[in-house]
Specification:
Layout lengths: L2 H22 L4 H4 L10 H24 L10 H4 L10 H19 L3 H4 L2 E4 L3 E4 H26 L2
Antiparallel strand pairs: 1-2
Helix pairs in contact: 1-5, 1-7, 3-5, 3-7
Bound molecules: nickel (II) ion (NI).
Length: 157
């Protein structure tokens, strides 16, 4: 991956917390509970999911550069989304996302070429290096912004 492409993903990670907060802060409490369809996640669940996902991603970023070919941790995201704290106000999770992303930017900008190519093994992704992991999480944020915009379009607000 060219250095410019790495920088593009770091920039997406830098900008995401502000973009995400700006989007969801417009929602009323009622709008936060709307879904595209029964059984899909609400915007409130999506925000708490991104915080949990990125807490897990924090380990996926750090293990490959601190251990030799580690297994990357996995979790059941739908089971997580059914827990009581997914009903909390958004600010608790937005604060987690802000803190994680601020740390990631500093961590990622410090990586050497050799560190960018260090790998961990995920049960579904196989062996992935830091470039691939960072690309996945830059995209992950954008995908959930798109998902929330789909909820808005569906409900016309
Ligand atoms: Ni997700």
């Amino acid at each position: 991956m060219p250095a410019a492409e790495r920088q593009q993903y770091i920039q997406m990670i830098r900008e995401f917390p502000e973009q995400f907060s700006a989007l969801v802060s417009q929602f009323t409490d009622e709008q936060l509970e709307l879904r595209v369809a029964e059984g899909e996640w609400s915007t409130r669940q999506i925000v708490h999911h991104v915080a949990d996902s990125h807490m897990n991603a924090n380990n996926r970023f750090r293990l490959p550069i601190t251990e030799s070919s580690p297994a990357l941790p996995v979790y059941d995201q739908d089971a997580y989304a059914r827990q009581a704290d997914y009903a909390l106000p958004l600010d608790v999770s937005l604060a987690i996302i802000r803190g994680l992303h601020a740390r990631w930017v500093v961590l990622l900008e410090s990586l050497t070429d050799a560190q960018w190519r260090m790998v961990g093994t995920h049960p579904e992704w196989g062996a992935v290096d830091l470039e691939e992991i960072v690309r996945r999480y830059a995209d992950h944020g954008i995908n959930h912004i798109n998902q929330i915009n789909t909820i808005r379009a569906k409900h016309g607000f």
